[in-house]
Amino acid sequence: MTFLTEPENPPDCKLLFSNEKTGKDLGQHGGRNVFSTQRLLYGVIGSLALLIVLLVTATVAPYLLPARTGSTTPFRSDAEIASDEIIAYELEKLEKLEAASRRKSINPLSVSSENGLYDSSAAEKASMELLVVEIDNLSDGKFASREIIAFELEKLQKLEGQVGQSINQAIEQSINQAGDSSHSGRSDGLASMDALNIERELDKLLQEMREDTERQGLEEGSEAEENGKGEDAKLEGKKVAPAGPDEGLCVLMPNEQRFDCFPEGNATQTSCEARGCCWSSPSMKVGRRNAKITPVSMGVPYCFYPFDYPTYHLVKYEPTDNGFSGVLERDCDAVDVYPSPIQLLSLDVYFETSQRLRVKITDKNNQRFQVPLPVLPDPPASKSNGLLYDFKVTKKPFSFQVTRIETGAVVFDTSAGGFAFYDQFIEIASYLPSRFIYGLGEHTDAHFLHSVEWTKFTFWTTDIFPSQGTPLYGDHPFYLNMEEDGRANGVLLFNSNAMDVILQPTPAITYRTIGGMLDFYVFLGPSPQDVVAQYIELVGKPVLPPYWALGFHLCRWGYGSLAETKRIMERNIAAGIPLDTQWNDIDYMDSFKDFSVNPANFSGVPNFVGDLHSRGMHYVVITDPGISSVEPANTYPPYDHGVALNCFVKNSTDEIIEGRVWTGKSQAYPDFSHPNASAYWTTEIANFHEIVPTDGLWIDMNEPSNFVDGSVYGCPQSPLETPPYLPGIAGAGLNTRTLCMTAKHYAGLHYNLHSMYGIYQAAATRSAFISLNPNKRPFALSRSSFIGQGQFSAHWTGDVSSDWSHLQTSIGDILNFNMFGIPLVGADICGFAGDTTPELCLRWQQLGAFYPFARNHNSQGQKDQDPAAFSVNVTNAIKSALQTRYRLLPYFNSLFFRASLNGSTVVRPLFFEFPQDPRTYSVDGQFLVGPGLMISPVITPNTTEILSYFPAGRWFDYYTGLEVDGKGAWLHLPAPLDTINVHIRGGSIIPLQNGEVTTTASRLNPFELLVALNAGSASASASASASASASGNGSASGELFFDDGEQLDVLERGSFTLVQFALMENVLSSVVVSPGLWDIPRLDLVSIYGMDEPRAVVVGGKDAEFTYDAMGVLRIRSLGLDLKTPFKIAFEF
Fold this sequence. Notes:
Domain P-type: 248-307
Largest sheet: 10 strands, mixed
Structural class: alpha+beta
Number of domains: 4
Oligomer: single chain
Low-confidence stretches: 1-12, 14-47, 49-90, 100-196, 213-240, 285-298, 1017-1031
Transmembrane segments: 40-65
Radius of gyration: 33 Å
Keywords: Disulfide bond, Glycoprotein, Glycosidase, Hydrolase, Membrane, Transmembrane, Transmembrane helix
InterPro entries: Gal_mutarotase_sf_dom, GH, Glyco_hydro_31_AS, Glyco_hydro_31_C, Glyco_hydro_31_CS, Glyco_hydro_31_N_dom, Glyco_hydro_31_TIM, Glyco_hydro_b
Strand content: 15-25%
Helix content: 25-40%
Protein name: Lysosomal alpha-glucosidase
CATH superfamily of the largest domain: Glycosidases
């Protein structure tokens, strides 16, 4: 596919798209009067500011005189602080009013997903009336004192730098005096006169502006009629630069409403205004807790779009069976900021499901790059029923809005302005319903909840040590946003080109991508988990991993030999560390060449792998995409074979492009998008598997990484290599440490496909292993990732450092990738780069025991950090954490089943289960495993007590059954070095097995059920009469998924056992949903937390023995129940 389009002829300012029989011509509606109306709205505000100048001058003048002798009034009194709160409230209210008026559809033409076209001029009139009423309210004497006006004036910068500190002191003194009078209704004559004057002047101004607008419209209409050209007169002739923005309107723009008009940086006032944009230094604002004037974030742009910045307008609209289609035309007075603006755009809106909406905007006349993988479902033939959303589009300036029908919440609204569509620069912004936004990966962020304080995220897969502010290995432009009422929405921009995403405190989001198209998918949830499931349903559900992949993995770069690999592994086995898989990094290779084995140091690998398999263990090795291209002919089959199949990436002259990675020599890169690539990769893996029967493949460096920029011969000069806008990548250009942008893949240019290299390789790797073992689940671990890659591989978070900050951020990483549909994810436990410490490694191993993917891995030259490398106490504490993991593997496996079946998460943030509790929205030092287990790790050094949040409900210590007395509260918990805090949520039933040193052995042990009752139970210390209630013991539910642990496509075949459990009305029962084809261990033990002591327990009509300990834990042992047969256990009180 071709990305760059041929330059179009300059527009002649005529309508480029006229009426057709199939659509409605909208080109003659909504002309210049739109901007007059908008200027009227903000002219009122501007004029109000001028009135305020007069009032404030009169107010503060007396205070410019020396203070009276003997005055003892304190500079800051409690009353002043109270006044600050009132001021802050009023300022915030006025800012919201300003924002709301700007967000109204200025042009009366809109499109509704339910009602088609309608006229919104009434809404515009209501907006005007709202503004006047709100200004009236500011003058009613209750809150609108001179001090509020003065501070508003400070915000508008009318006094900035003019009166100095004496003005500030005088204003603060007046606050103290007016604060008292404001509470008494402001009955003094001066206040009443101020209010009356404001009202009179506003009425006069409104009338004058209305008359001026009407007069201006008549003059324009008369001139057009005189020329005989009507509306077309405005569109003919040469394009001229638009008039500069109204300076008053620019000054009025609040900081958080500024959308950057000069994103490439280094703007000056001249260059900014040449684009028709506003230039103004960021305003100052009043602190919420004191009246000191403080500077705002330096991220606030000086150059920003005015309200009426010319962009595009809708010139054709046509309903379709499943949505809308339309045509957008670029405004004739739009400024050419970048080369090759696209004059006509197609707009396609699809109501794909009741919860999912698609909005696609692209070049109408030229084909542009569209992401080819993952393959998304085609839009349905007809519109879904029961839509959760309403869709509206405004003609001029073009924008669209997605609204939640049930609540009226606006979840996506592009009226923020600044919409642009050039060949190599596309920009669009949207308001967000709240500041609670998550996702947008892969980046290192200090918190799971993103800051909206002018935060930039760059999307461009990059080989770099993780650090804040840089793009990392994955590209996932998907976010989840919590709304004020606990509902959630999500948005995906299906685009693979280099991109910046900016969050600002409006709150709002801006997208800037340098290629492809705008292809948005909006998900309406309404719960956070619903949003993720809807996203994953679209991009591809994750594969069910082999059971052994859930065990503990051990690796490092730098073993150096097979002997050292064995020594480290055996010392951990001897220490009793549960261990399923041994790994080797690139040091196993011969001269770092893929699909080779070092003959000197690793010659015994085949026998070693055989020994691992005999122990029920597994083996995985690494490979890189770089294939040595300088070996003698016919001596290195991986290169010769790729040349023969013509499946290496080419340069701009159609020769094999060569980079350099670990061999230190030239290397070729397989083109995994080529039709021959799958056969090539399958053959090479199969040939290697004959020598080393590895159980999976670790695919690294697939961003793709390159130790030279572009190629060993450099890159040609091209706009692809040096685009007019460069996102915030880590380096001087797009080809930094990767291939040339002009490089050619079968599916297109590297410019478009760069961030997709990893998903193409992951797909080829999965296909290769299925070809080798058609009945076994493949295992692939990929560093680079893209949208929907969970259907092909697992992921680890790359070369994290051995420090506490990366331990902390790893929690957000695993939560994000579960949202992205790649649930089998983890960080290098104890860190990869740098030396760990015993305390750090212990705490990280405790946390990592609850990663979905748990692997200890570090770099060469660093201290040993395998569990057995430390003191006996540290090793035993690590072993204890891993034994807990192995005991919980039936629960983990059941969660992966659900993830593969319906797109649920394995680990999740607290707010996924408690969306109605806003206090959970920012908790990122804790997380949930499934719905039932809360993990509260130690994430700071020298810590033996932690503060953990417990949402409302019953919670029990996982280890002891002790109920935690916390109902939506933060609690202090002891955190000794040998323990990680784990709590089970009331209402949960969790399947367990006694852990062994391998998953192979653990799977043979009998099952247990751990039951924690939810609210409704009488306490364990309640009286006998209270505890005798037949329905007083609460309820719980859960399930167990079990199969052979390795067969492919068990979900499609139904060859698995699924048993669901419920405890209700004092009866624990099971339902066998699917009996499966495999033998399954029996259920031997049931433990119940939160139940009163029963008089009897009846199993199968017979009394059963049980124990009830001091912690209130009920245990029923030696049950021997067949889980393929439904059972009932009754409790009598």
